[in-house]
Structures are given as C-alpha cells and as structure tokens.
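call fold(seq) -> tokens
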Amino acid sequence: MNITLSIATWWQALGGIEKFFWAIALLFSFMFVIQTILAFVGGGGDDDGAFGDSDEYVDGDSGIDYQFFTVKNFITFFTVFGWVGLGCLKADLPLAQVVIWSTLSGVIIVLIMFYLFSQMAKLRSSGTLQIQNALHKQAETYLRIPAIRSGYGKVHIRVQGSLRELRALTDDEEDIPTGKPVTVIGIVNESILLVTGKG
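ret:
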C-alpha cells in the first residue's frame, strides 16, 4: 500500500513532459522485455508483424532479406527514445534538444541493429547451396547410379568449399558403380545432379 502511494505521489510530482517520457520508456521497455523472452523461448520467431513488411529470413537463391520497418525495430526505437529523453531531461537540456537527441539515439540504435542483422543474413545466405555451382565439377559415386535414369544414386561432391552428398541421375547406358569418378553435366532440379561416368 505504501509503495503504491509512493508511486502515485512520485507520478503526481512529475511535469507533463516527464510523464510523457516515463510513459514511453516504461511501456516500450516492458514490450522489449516480453519480446526478448519470446525470442528466447521460440515464441517470437523472426516473422513478427511489421509496418508493411516483416522480418523474413528466406533461404533461397536470392538469399535472406532483413526488413527495416518492423515491430521489433519500432519497439527498440521508442525504448531508446524514452530513456535517452529522461536522461536529457535530467541534464536540464532544452526540450528541443531532448527531442532531437532522443530521436537521433533511437534511429542510430535501429540502424546499428539493421546493419548487424543484414550482415548476419548475408553470412547465412552465403552458406546456402547454389547447386548451379556443381555444374562441370568432378564428383565420386557414393551409391550406385542406375543407367538411363532408371533410378537415383548419390555422389559426393565439393561445392562452395564443403563436401556435399547429393542425389544423381545418369543418361549413361550402364550403371555407374560406387566409387567411380563422374562429371556433372547437368542440373535436374535444386537437389539432383545429372552425371556421366564417361570420359
């Protein structure tokens, strides 16, 4: 009860602009904490709602895209905006400077986050297999490849600096046995190679 009265007394003693920045700081700090907890337990994910877009991490040929205008960035901006504003008020800065520094601080933090996540996205994208890079490369049969596309085999092939195990077909008239060197002469789809044991 005493704590409630103390908080009420403290709140009443604040000026209007202080109440505004305290409300912003407390509200968005609470949302930031909830967002962080959800992210750790897996409930936040990377597809939160956004203003026109969402944080999307899409594996594919085009890599991964990190959007700027998202709910996460919105919450982060106003969290920083609120606390920096309170710090500036505590330093007795003019209101115009308080707003300027608060806004700049929020924008800078969001830009830093945007840059860091963009770099992380590029790192993830660079690790995505671009199967076209296997074309004309040498491989070795891991599982026998039946002749004339009558079934799938598997090959070991080094692509993008790492050893991959991929399914393969052949147009050769004879089966390609395990352990035989082959050459990739075509791409059937995103996970199947066309190989030959000739030549």
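The chain has two domains: 2-126, 131-196.
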